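call fold(seq) -> tokens
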Amino acid sequence: MDETERIATSPSSKGRETSEFLMRIVRTLSHSADFEQREKEKARIDKAYKQSDKKLGELVTAHYEDLTKVTQDFSRMSKCINDSRERITKIREDLSSCKTLLHCKRDELRRLWIEGVEHKAMVALLDQVELIKEVPVKLDNFIISKHYLHATDLLVNAVAKLEKPLAGIDALRDLKAELIARNEQLHETLIEELNKQIYAAVPDQSVSLKRSSSYRRGSNLTKQLSDPECKQTKPTELLKPPEMMDLNKEIKEDLNGNPEENPAHFIAVLVEALFVLRKIPDSAEGIKSKIEPELSAIVARTSQQVVDSYAQQGESLSSQNQPRFLLELLENVFHQFRNVARMHKIVLRNLQRIIPTPEETVDEVSGVPVRNELLYDMNDVWSKIQAVLELVLREYLDVQTSSRQRAPTSFDEPSTDINSYFSKKKPTKSKKISLFRFDASIHAMSTNSYVDDNMTFDTGNLFHVNLLSEVGLGKHQMEMCKPSVNNITAIFMPLEAFIKEVEDAVACQDGTSSLQSFVTEFIQNIFLGQVHATVSSSIAAATKGLQIIISGFDALRHVVDHKTQKDLGVTRPLLTSTVTVDRNIRKLQELMQSLPTYGDQFLNMICNILKEYRDTCNSAYRGIVQIESDEKRVISATWAKDEDISRFLRSLPSWRSLQMSERQDLSKKLCSEEEIRTLNSKEALILISNLSSEAIIPQQEIITDVTQMRTIANVHESLEWFAGRLRQFCELLSARSPNSMNSIELSTREYPPVSDKSLESLKMLVKDFQDLAEICLLLLHLEVRVHCFYFLLPVAKQSNYAGPIDDLDPDSNVLKLNKDLSAMEEMLVQSLQPQKFKYIFESLGFLVSSILMSSIQYLKKINENGIKKMCRNLFAIQQNLTNITMARETDLDHARQYYELLYMNPDDVLSLIVEKGPDYSYTEYVSLFQLYQKSHPHIKPANLDTLLHKLEEVMNKTQNGSST
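ret:
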């Protein structure tokens, strides 16, 4: 029962299971022999049937509407199928009859089919003709909108159709000729547009002209240096680097956009259009041939804009030699050349995309294999850039004129002898005057014509004659500044930076670009030589003035004026020669900063100049202190050169105070007054022991011309100032030395590192100048004192101090000394700084008193009139020295009191010593007693010995008492 229900209620495979169910029932009933069993099975089947019938009725009742609809749809579909069968049968019959009829008219149908095909072909040709007629208009529209790729495709396809499918149409011959001509015009247009993109499409933020009168590199952008006809690009739309370009990306052109918005893509479109035109080789050759003229046009255009810019400000470039205008021009040109190189790189990358590898193809006309390869590369571009820049530099550096005035190339060698620049030049021989010439002969005229024709192809004239004429500019409009070799100093650093970019971009075989070779050759063979010649001539003129000073002419016209002193920040006159040498050295120092690559050459030049000037100063010094042509020198010069005397003088407090730094407290005393007096007495004793001999100092052994002393003072001040400036230069160079550990802060423009050998040579020269300056000061110090000896020694040795009462005036030699000291004071006070002037004249009173007191031994006799005369001598000198030093010379009071002791007899002097103590030394008292005995003959020598014995006892007693 359960199985029967399962089979009956199973929704799947209902028909199959029902059949199996019926067969199983029949099989059961036929094989069963028991009636009851059959009855049971029958009852079970009846019951199942009733249940099924009941359920079926329920289902029919529940789905009556669906069943009705299904029945109706089935009837309708059955009817449609029957109708279709009838129509198919009819069609079969009609086709059979048509087949029979077609077999009867087969030839006529073939003719009609052929005519139909012909008519279709004719209609297609007419359609193509109509499209071809519209090509010129569409082509013009594409060219106007600069959609060159669409224009090229349209033109190439149109020409291809006219040459093959439409070749036989006579009505299209004129159109064909026109399109072929337009093909060539489009090629020229594409080349022109490509050149415009390469040379004129410079970004807005690339270049600007400085309109500020004070030249500042960071000024705002003011003017676009591109072609006025070229559309400006937006600042935010930068060129895509050529290295980042996708070579596999298909080049497409958007008809709804601006083709020039993206210059890199626009260049790719232009190259693709040229490839479609099959003009790549011709185009590459045309681009290559246009490189140099276009670069020259950029230079000319930029020059004109710089001229116009500064003309609006009222500045005249031609009347001023201002290399900053040239620097501005080159900086602008460098920037534009970088953009040009970048554009060429984009063009070459697109050419590489089109011609990835060189391949050989066969020429259609000649049948010769042709190798497809790029006709130019970046090396050609950079080579042309260097060539144009070299032409510009040749013009503004005045290479042609300077090369004819080339100086020797060995000027920067340390061993170079530059005495030739200071020595007298041999008189040049007068040129012979020619009697006649052949300038107007036919041969000479034809030769000159030939030379003129060749000169037009010279690189120097090519820049101004050919290239500038293309852009409508003349030579006078190109002059940013006067041509001069010195212009290299303003442009060297940016020029070297650009050359480094060129060498990085181009693989040079020898590691040096042609532009670098030109700059190097120019600097080494022309610029350095001319700088050396200029400096040498300037210094030669200055040292010639120094020689005039030495010869005794007016020295005032050989020192700088007050304005120059104020500009230099000095308070005393400096020699014109020293200032001239310093200015030339400063120029060379600036050149070291401007041309750091040649720092060692300039430093060697500085050392050579300093050596020559040192020798010149030494010669000038010797010319003053040397006695005529003899090797013997004046006394003060000999002592100043003496190592022992010089060492002693340099150890004195007065000298050490001069060497103190300005930061130190100059008011602080280095020694006590007693120590200073002791040292001064030691100095005086040394001088007296060397000069107080019986012989009088010869006049030729002193400097009698006070103007020469002023010259020596000027030399001292000049060389000391010069050595100080050179010392600062050495400190800056030492800070830049590779082996230096100094952390000194340098100026904005630093000096380049130099060799240690050159630096040591410079330091030795600085020391030589400082030593000579110190020797000059010591010479003045000693010369004043030698003059005192020269005038005061004859006071005791040659004058009479036992004369009549009316002979009370100061000695003539004392008056001469005062006059001499006043003259020296008048000269030196203007030439020396106050502390140095004080150094020369301080302690001079002690020396004078020591000389006069020690000269008592040379007096034969003296009376009261003589004592008064000696006191007047001392008083006259004291007054003069007080006026000079502005301090009372108490040492001369001490000497006057010494001579006044002669008024007293020796016993009274001894009593005074016992009472107040000794004011003088034992030797001075002895000399005093001896003169007293000479002046009073009644005193016998035995009494003198007794007095000297008493003096010794008193001196010993007082000294022992003071020591206890």
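The chain is about 65% helix and 0% strand.
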